[in-house]
Amino acid sequence: MSEDDDRSPPLDLRGADIAESSNKTRNCSGVSGSGVPGPGPGPSSMEFQAPYPDQVLENVLENVLQFLSSRRDRNAASLVCKSWCRVEALTRSELFIGNCYSVSPRRATVRFARVRSVAIKGRPRFADFNLMPPDWGAHFAPWVAAMASAYPWLEKVYLKRMSVTDDDLAVLAESFPSFKELVLVCCDGFGTSGLAIVASKCRQLRVLDLIESEVADDDMDWIACFPENGTTCLESLIFDCVECPINFEALERLVARSPSLKKLRLNRFVSIGQLYRLVVRSPQLTHLGTGSFSAAEGPAQGEPEHDYLSAFAACKSLVCLSGFREILPDYLPAIRPVCANLTSLNFSYANINAEQLKSVVLHCHKLQSFWVLDSICDEGLQAVASTCKDLRELRVFPFDAREDSEGPVSEVGLQAISEGCRKLQSILYFCQHMTNAAVVAMSQNCPELEVFRLCIMGRHRPDPVTGQPMDEGFGAIVRNCKMLTRLAVSGLLTDRAFGYIGKYGKLVRTLSVAFAGDSDMGLKYVLEGCPRLQKLEIRDSPFGDAALRSGLHHYYNMRFLWMSSCRLSPQGCQGIARELPRLVVEVIRDEVAEHKDDAVDILYMYRSLEGPRDDAPRFVTILQ
Amino acid sequence: MEKPVNYGGGDLHLEATELRLGLPGSDGHEKQSSASVKNNKRTSTEAMTEESRSKSNSNVSDGRNGNPDGDPPTKAQVVGWPPIRSYRRNSFQPKKTEIDGAGMYVKVSLDGAPYLRKVDLKVYKSYPDLLKALESMFKLTIGQYSEREGYNGSEYAPTYEDKDGDWMLVGDVPWDMFISSCKRLRIMKASEARGLGCL
């Protein structure tokens, strides 16, 4: 899924302008992020008038518009005039809702009548790190209910950070006879019972992808619920995040009768012996998640040692390898035959050292995406840098995710990567400390960087060599990386860093800030300087009400703003809510932390056509 | 109260080499962070106080200012930091599966016996091990397992209740699958057990 949001020009949306524009042709409200949150009660006007002279033109338009696939292009087309808006709505088959509360299911389904594929995002990202009490919202239920009647032909559902219950999955399975693809990313609220219903009822299912979702163990053998007879249409089955044992015999039979299966990612309850049995049956796989990649637990199996090397050698189409959840490094050489073809390798759950990594990665010349644990140390990163000249995406996760742990990777690894992997587009790098010099080097060596996320785990940590803040490093990134759209900053940072971001980060859409800045000026620089800013998440930084006000001109262009443990007051937030009626301003109380009554723990605000939501839990106050 | 020390690089622990007057063991560090970090740059419209800030999620109160002062030597772990999802974080901690836990005790009942016993399945490495232990615990013979006939020929047949609530004959499935799915054991009289045999 593309993280891209609509590149809407910054519009000045004070109250008067909104009222005025409603009298013009713009009464098709933008549901997917185009600049104008249209006013007016109820759904947009979709009257079908008697045949009129432009009918021919509209038919032509319909035929042309159905070739438009980019939602940005479609949003632009929909703003041309009423008839373009209407025709675009009729021909849009993929609906993307970036914030499930920005528009109601009813409004969306009324405007877009012929949708086959829906993508919905819910919770803010910082909720993943326990910064917010659970049960905040983002329920799939009202969406599936609305779609059940509006889109009986629905084929695909993609959800990210939504709460999905077993009942919701049941409704989905019952309501859409042509249903083909279900992708749940970072979702929760359902269990193996819900999966069982989907498996048994969705006879056309091609894709069932569970990615980083929390699945409750209801003791339900969901794998056995796929129809037993005949072949399945399954192309992709991803369940590596499911934390409960599965019925392996049923899985084996399922794989045997799924000739179209290309992507299979197993969970850690599948042993390497079991993996072998699956791999030999399906050499056509392109994406494989290996499960535990170690022997089964318990007393010795008495199984013969399999020829893992041959099994992998037979997988000529394998391009993406992941898993290794409990890796026994002795088995690592088995994947050697596929290394030369791999474009994506995920070792981020594999506690391997530099030597073990080298035995594999030195053969991976075509690698474009590499996720790994810092257990490989700088030395491992140097090996990657020397071999993977085509690398586009790198993520280095910490094995020991604490502030003061050993730092196995450092500026040395980052420098090496920047020198070896010139085509790098996206990097996420966890370390204990970092030097400005290495960050500057990366900004110069990797001009194609679009995503730069550096997490110096030691809060407020300066450059250990110079003692300086990290301002210059991040400044160089925004200055030199002209295509930068996503940035996460860390370490010791003064307002100067934010000055650089505001001055040079003209394409930045997503910015994450933690424990940084000196004063309101920091936030002001960003809000005044970054016209494309869509998503801003800030924690534990000294930005207050005055800084918040400096974004008034821009909040309608953003998907959301999150500020937690900053210096906001309820009055300050109230002021924003009053001036921007189309913004939903949520003040969320963190019930764990004690605080004085007038402190704002968490501010989460977002534009919406619907006003305050009616499913807010008691720890959420919506200001008006 | 000592004056704030400039910790150029936060984790150099310069205070260890610092000369000062005072009794050994007197630190003053806990108070120091609140006191020294009263930031002049805060405007008068600030409603939040130092206290409320420091009691928020980040229980280290030096988040405000950019100067390197006041990096407290003992950093408590902060909620949600570093930003790693808990799923990933927990992956590298020792897993407590049922089997790796403190013991896998299951009830064992014997038809006709006045009370039940408990055994720790973890202690046994294989079926013969377990059966021998049961034989000695209950003073009976269970006999040999055969795939075709179950335990025919012996007085008793060991059965178990699995995760689905079904009663299964002990010995059919691989040992580790057995111990992960066995909820309780029941030693049946052979006459009753004939129906369970693999016929």
TrEMBL record, chain A:
InterPro entries, per the entry: COI1_F-box (IPR041567), F-box-like_dom_sf (IPR036047), Leu-rich_rpt_Cys-con_subtyp (IPR006553), LRR_dom_sf (IPR032675), Transp_inhibit (IPR041101)
Gene Ontology, cellular component aspect: nucleus; SCF ubiquitin ligase complex
Domain (COI1 F-box) ranges: 54-93
Pathway: Protein modification; protein ubiquitination
Segments forming domain Transport inhibitor response: 114-159
Top-level taxonomic group: Eukaryota
Residue ranges of the region described as Disordered: 1-49
Keyword set, alphabetical order: Auxin signaling pathway, Nucleus, Ubl conjugation pathway
Coiled-coil regions, chain positions: none
UniProt subunit comment: Part of a SCF (SKP1-cullin-F-box) protein ligase complex. May interact with auxin and auxin-responsive proteins.
Protein name (Swiss-Prot/TrEMBL): Transport inhibitor response 1-like protein
Organism: Morella rubra (Chinese bayberry)
UniProtKB/TrEMBL annotation, chain B:
PROSITE patterns: PB1 (PS51745)
Biased composition (Polar residues): 55-64
The keyword Transcription regulation appears for this protein: yes
UniProt keyword terms in alphabetical order: Auxin signaling pathway, Nucleus, Repressor, Transcription, Transcription regulation
Gene Ontology biological process terms, A to Z: auxin-activated signaling pathway; regulation of DNA-templated transcription
InterPro entries per the UniProt record, alphabetical: AUX/IAA_dom, AUX_IAA, PB1-like
Protein name (database record): Auxin-responsive protein
